[in-house]
Amino acid sequence: MNLKIRKYKKGDYEKFIHPLEKENMKFYMDKYISGGWSDKLNKLGFDENLKNGWIYLFGDDSEIFGNFRISPDNTDNTALYIHSIQIKKEFQNKGYGTQILNFIELKSKKLNFKKFRLSVFKDNPAINLYLKFDFEIIDSTPNLNLVLMEKILT
User: How many domains does the chain have?
Assistant: First the structure.
C-alpha cells in the first residue's frame, strides 16, 4: 500500500493525534509513570513539538491511521529525536513503521543530522522494529523501564 504522509494541520491533535496516543500509550504510562497518563502533559509535549519540531500524520486514501513527532534533540544538536510514532493497532505489523523510520532517516540526513534517537519502554513490541532498523541501546532508565536508542546515520 502506498503510504501518504502529510504535515500537521490545525485540529489534527484533537481529532487524530491525542486519541491515538492515549489509546496506544496509556497502558505504559499508567504502568511506569507516577501519576499515570496525563492529557495535560501529553498536550504540553505536543505543543513543544509543534513549536520546535515537525508533526506528521499518515495513512492511505481512505483514512489516517498514524502520526509521528520529531524535533532536534535538546541534549545533542547532532541528533534528531523521535518523540512519538503511533499507529492504530489494526495497522501495526504491516510495514508502516518501517516506512516511517525510512522517512525520518531521509529527513534527518536532509537536515544534516548525524543520528536519530528515541526512547521506548522495554516491553513495548516496537523495540523489535527499532533493533531491526539498527538502533542501539545507549542508555536506560530502569525505574521507568525505558531505554534510549540511537541510530548513527551513514
Answer: 1
